[in-house]
Specification:
By secondary structure, the chain is mainly α. Helix content is 77%, strand content 0%. It contains 18 helices and no strands. It holds the Pfam family MFS_1.
Amino acid sequence: MLSGVNRPTDRTTTEYAPRPRPRSRPRIHRAWIVAAVTFVTIVGGAAFNSLPGLFVEPLHDEFGWTYGEIGLAVSIDMALYGLTAPFAAALMDRFGIRRVVVVALGAVAAGALASYWMTAAWQLMLYWGLLVGLGTGSMAMAFSATVTHRWFAARRGLVTGILTAAGASGQLVFLPLCAWIVDEHGWRPATLTVALAALVVVPFVWLLMRDHPADVGLAPYGGTYVEKPAPARGAARRTVRVLFDAARTGPFWLLAGSFAICGASTNGLMRTHFIPSAHEHGMQITAAASLLAVIGVFDIIGTIFSGWLTDRFDARRLLAVYYALRGVSLLFLPMLMAPTVRPSMVFFIVFYGLDWVATVPPTLALCRQQYGEDSAIVFGWVLASHQVGAALVAFLGGVVRDVTGSYDLVWYASGALCATAALMALVIRGKQAATL
């Protein structure tokens, strides 16, 4: 009886219970969340790159170190930044993006904290050069290239531009802040600020970053689902093998050579020597730092727009235009230096800022066209050349300043080099004609 009475109730419950709805696709693809975390990570890691130009004069005044000694420490940082990048890309294939980036942020924080107590030039080279160089190199453009390659099948040029702009965003955030700290409290509190910025990013990376779309059961944005590949063993061996394979092709040397000039005319030149050069013409350090920060604003605009252009136009011609315009602007810079910020200097800052790292999206696109699955590692080696060029100018620019008492020769030489880079970009040939 009881069972008979209960049957209608069971049937009614079953009949009128709401049916589960199929799970709707998320409005925001997880790839964009990963890209956002990557952006924030690069901003945090790039904070230290805002400091060299601010520290040249304070370290010279406090310790009596020459411009060449300080430039050498910066050059070690920049060289290791570049040389670490291709190995970092391979390590991410082996151990995962998340683990490598967390360790890298720890290295940046350690170097920044240790520099607080430094008293000798060799310590500057160890903390700034070695620790920070290795840390920031592991979060260099090869990091963004790996994320873009794994998580995006569409909009790669745009995403590359956005992630490249992250470095400029870090400059925009930290340059004015650190300039004020150095001016009001000295250089040591500024190093603590940078260390804190690197540590704050760690939880975001650990909680939100994922190594591959398959980790969360998704296809790359704009693509089809692919299984996560097995961890690649022999990371260092693979990195070197990819270098030797790429070195047998003509486009690699043209990309590496032009990108070396890119680094020489941006990071090595402006980031290291613009502030002391402007200061020796009577401009306040905070004013010069603010101009660099403004470059960061237009750098973001220019890089994202360059990514959009790269999806639509020949990357070689874009590179040639970018390098040519940069060279012309640098030739005029010595004539624009003055104690106050004049409209002509503002025009230069805007013009140069739009071009600062607009070269990255087309360079990365050419690496993808030429080297396919190995493109992230190849781009890491191309980036290494970028940083070697930056390191040479960071060091030699300081030496030229010690010998001649002026930076003018450095500006003119860099402008001429940019013309060479424009020609190199134009003669890059298609993949079918690349092998030497």
